[in-house]
Each structure stands twice: as C-alpha cells, then as structure tokens.
Amino acid sequence: MAAGLTESLVYNAKVTAISLENDQYSVVSSQGTFTAPKVIVAMSPAIMKHIQFSPGLPAARQAVHNGYTMGAVGKFFAAYNTPFWRSQWKSGQVIGDGNPIDVTFESYGQGQHFLMGFISHDNMRRLDNASREQIIEECTRNLVTYFGSQARTAMVDKGLMLWDKEPFSEGGPTGITAPGVLTSVRDALVAPVGGIHWAGTETATYWTGYMDGAVTSGYRAAAEVSAALVGARR
Fold it and tell me: What does the alpha-carbon distance between residue 149 and residue 140 come to, in Å, rounded to a whole number?
C-alpha cells in the first residue's frame, strides 16, 4: 500500500502539536513541521492527551480523550522446533489460571512453532516493575504447568513485549472506556473537529480493537477527507 508513497512517508516522527492558522493545519513533530488543509489522527484516544491542539478541542472531544484508558497487558512467546503438545493431544490453546498467563495460543512461522501467552490486568500490573528475567521465568513456569516440562526443555527461543511500558501505546490491546463515556459522548468519537478527522480501531463500528477495525476506520476517515476536499473545490 505504501509503495507509491515512499517520498511522502515520514517515520519516527513523534507528533507533539497540531494547530490551525489561516485554514491550514500545522503538525509539529520531531522530524519537522508539516502543513495540510486536513489532518487524520489515527491513534487511541487514551494517548491523544500527549498532543497539544490549538485551538483547543470541544468539551465533548476532550471527554473522549479523558474517558479512555489502555488495558494492562503484555505478551510472552516461546519458540519450539516441533509442536510437542500435539503428541499430548493438546491444541496449544489454554484458558488458564493467570499465574501470570491467563490465555495461550498456538502459531507457526519461519519454520518454528510458538506458544504465545497474554499477561493481563492485575498480573500485568503486579509485574510492571519486575525484571525482564523474573517475568520470563514466571511465564515459563506457567507454560510448564499447562504443557509439561518440555515447555521449558524444548524451548529454543523466547520473547516478551510489555505494552504497558511502550511510550506510544501505554498498554493494550486497545483503549477501554469508563462507564458512561460512550453513551454520553460517543458521537464525538468520530465527529470531525474542523479539518481534524479521527481514525483508529477504537472508532470502528465493527471489530473494534482489532486490525480489521483499524483498517476500516482508516477507509472511513479517508473517505471523509476526500469528500470534504472535493466539496471545497466546487
């Protein structure tokens, strides 16, 4: 999709401010300032508070930002040369005890088999300040509980992602709202503010929280901008 946009794409550009002046928006980033008549902001409302908007946003839109928070979640994966659990008549999927992994999934890629586990809510908060080594050891012990000793002895690689500590996500897998937020200001979740349009999986009407929702929200926001620009030329 990006093949034809090589010269137009800017990576590693942390946006800190979006301002409007003379019908043009200025997007201030760590890689410079960019101007355009329309802007699409495609990120979770929970972390939009890090961007300064000028003029300020309407109260309903601010309530959207303030009403969202990110879930506490991390992901651990263990790689194996063979799916040993299948010989035990196990699928690789477990709804577990949350000590600390509460659910696992099986996957395959690049010649290896994987057991992936999510660490969620209170368990993730408990481990937020633990060392990487401690978290990996607790997750490995938990896989042994679920799948037996081979979960440790046959492991050829491992990985850990703590979304809580990622500065551009601050948690995951998606933003969640406090009670009453969506019923009171749901229209502001997608309603454009001047030339600023909103996208991101939280704004999707189907498969919210998933990649599918992120993509369809992007199509919706792009269609809004296209229609607005065409209308402005008439």
Answer: 10
**Residue list, annotated binding site:** 15, 118, 202
- What's the pLDDT at 232? 67
Mean predicted confidence (pLDDT) in 157-164? 93
DSSP string, 112-138: EEEEEEEEEHHHHHHHTTS-HHHHHHH
pLDDT of residue 8: 82
pTM, full prediction: 0.86
Which residues carry a binding-site annotation for substrate?
Answer: 118
Q: What is the pLDDT of residue 174?
A: 87
Extended strands (E) in 48-166: 52-54, 68-70, 73-80, 94-95, 101-109, 112-120, 155-162
Instruction: Report how far apart, in Å, the C-alpha atoms of 197 and of each of 33, 191, 202, 224, 225 are.
Output: 19, 7, 14, 8, 8
Answer yes or no: do 45 and 88 share one domain: no
Q: Alpha-carbon distance 228 to 234, whole Å? A: 10
Same domain, 19 and 88: no
Range of the domain at 24: 3-69+174-233
Residue list, annotated binding site for FAD: 15, 202
Number of domains in the chain: 2
CB 108 within 8 A of CB 119: no
Which is nearest to 161 in space by CA: 112, 125, 100, 119? 119
- 174-196 tens-digit pLDDT: 888 989 998 999 999 999 999 99
Q: Which tokens belong to 6?
A: 């090589």
